[in-house]
């Protein structure tokens, strides 16, 4: 599910209207209070599970190394427990990382959309100013070149 969201946010859009639609949809979802709380809970749980898996990996790794140093081979159950915690660390780490990537892509997409809207408005304003200056002084080459009597 996270991969689909990330790919949607990474797609190159042909027009700013499509980008604006995606931004509006993401903003509507983000403005729902239970969606914010659910995202925060999922992120917190993923981080807590990742920390627990890393703590267990460290503890089991030290235990296996000390047993191996004393001539004892680790049991199959100890190795499976270590492998299971490594798997959990990878999965929850990628979930947490994916959530951070989604948040950052959303922020960048909002900035890009807003900047494109401002750039379009600036172009229209610049064009209107140029049209207005052509209407005001159609014959003169520059606004300061009008002849005025010296006093």
Plain-language structure description:
By secondary structure, the chain is an all-alpha fold. It is built from four helices and no strands. The chain is rod-shaped. The termini are far apart. The model has no long low-confidence stretch (mean pLDDT 81).
Overview features:
single chain, 151 residues, mainly alpha, 4 helices
Quick rundown:
By secondary structure, the protein is mainly alpha-helical. Helix content is 81%, strand content 0%. It has four helices and no strands.
Low-confidence stretches: none
What is the helical fraction, as a range of percent? over 70%
Rough outline: rod-shaped
The main pleated sheet reads as: none
Average pLDDT across residues? Answer: 81
Rounded to the nearest angstrom, the radius of gyration is 30 Å
What is the count of β-strands? Answer: 0
Measured by DSSP, the beta-strand proportion falls in under 5%
Order of helices and strands: HHHH
**SS class:** mainly alpha
Distance between the termini: 78 Å
Query: What's the number of helices?
Result: 4
Explain the layout of strands and helices:
Blueprint: H1 2-10, H2 16-31, H3 33-69, H4 76-136
């Amino acid at each position: 599910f996270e991969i689909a969201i990330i790919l949607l946010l990474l797609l190159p859009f042909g027009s700013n209207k499509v980008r604006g639609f995606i931004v509006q949809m993401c903003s509507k979802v983000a403005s729902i209070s239970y969606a914010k709380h659910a995202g925060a809970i999922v992120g917190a749980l993923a981080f807590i599970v990742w920390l627990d898996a890393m703590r267990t990996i460290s503890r089991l790794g030290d235990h296996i190394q000390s047993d191996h140093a004393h001539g004892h081979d680790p049991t199959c159950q100890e190795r499976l427990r270590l492998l299971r915690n490594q798997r959990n660390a990878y999965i929850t780490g990628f979930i947490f990382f994916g959530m951070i990537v989604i948040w950052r892509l959303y922020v960048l997409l909002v900035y890009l959309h807003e900047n494109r809207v401002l750039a379009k408005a600036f172009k229209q304003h610049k064009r209107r100013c140029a049209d207005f200056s052509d209407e005001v002084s159609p014959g003169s080459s520059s606004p300061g070149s009008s002849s005025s009597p010296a006093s």
